[in-house]
């Protein structure tokens, strides 16, 4: 549909770069509900505002599937992402990154639930490794900082961490 020589209402378009869109238009921009597919085969189906993904929607590409909230073309709000390796992240997003509180469940029994900042574990959280070892404590830039590690062999370590290992003051008991 057209209004004053611009797209307005329901319609389909195919761009010269191969992108297709079918859905609602307002004042020449994607606005309302619609479905797009770009030249690489990436698909988005959901709500649009002012030509950008905004509201509830679902995307699929070669790396993952995401269903949840969008703002200004990025993942923003509550959403669920399933990666091609089978890992699932459910939680809060901001600026197209994991930001806030969320849970990552990986293959073979790995899980992490807690804080995220810019796609990295940050703040308080709990990690469970495939062998059953757990860590509960604080994280900084995707690395353990301070907390309690419970090992499947009965050991418990409480103290500091740096990188991926124990560091500084701490106590290991069996």
Question: Helices and strands in order, then pairings?
Answer:
Elements: E1 2-3, E2 6-7, E3 9-14, E4 20-26, E5 29-37, E6 43-49, E7 52-60, E8 64-71, E9 74-83, E10 88-94, E11 97-105, E12 111-117, E13 120-128, E14 134-140, E15 143-150, E16 156-162, E17 165-173
Antiparallel strand pairs: 1-2, 3-4, 4-5, 5-6, 6-7, 7-8, 8-9, 9-10, 10-11, 11-12, 12-13, 13-14, 14-15, 15-16, 16-17
What does this entry look like structurally?
- The chain is an all-beta fold and about 170 residues long.
- Helices cover about 0% and strands about 70% of the residues.
- The protein contains no helices and 17 strands.
- The protein has a 15-stranded antiparallel beta sheet with strand order 3-4-5-6-7-8-9-10-11-12-13-14-15-16-17, with no helix packed on it. The chain has a two-stranded antiparallel sheet with strand order 1-2.
- The model has no long low-confidence stretch (mean pLDDT about 95).
């Amino acid at each position: 549909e057209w209004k004053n020589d611009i797209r307005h209402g329901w319609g389909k378009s195919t761009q010269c770069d191969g992108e297709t869109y079918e859905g609602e238009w307002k004042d020449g921009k994607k606005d309302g509900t619609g479905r797009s597919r770009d030249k690489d085969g990436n698909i988005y189906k959901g709500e649009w505002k002012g030509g950008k993904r905004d509201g509830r929607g679902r995307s699929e590409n070669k790396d993952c599937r995401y269903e949840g909230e969008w703002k200004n073309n990025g993942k923003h709000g509550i959403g669920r992402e399933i990666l091609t390796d089978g890992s699932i992240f459910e939680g809060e997003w901001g600026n197209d990154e994991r930001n806030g509180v969320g849970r990552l469940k990986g293959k073979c029994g790995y899980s992490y639930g807690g804080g995220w900042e810019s796609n990295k574990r940050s703040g308080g959280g709990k990690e469970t490794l495939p062998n059953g070892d757990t860590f509960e404590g604080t994280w900084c830039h995707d690395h353990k900082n301070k907390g309690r590690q419970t090992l499947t062999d009965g050991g418990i370590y409480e103290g500091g961490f740096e990188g991926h290992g124990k560091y500084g003051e701490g106590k290991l008991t069996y």
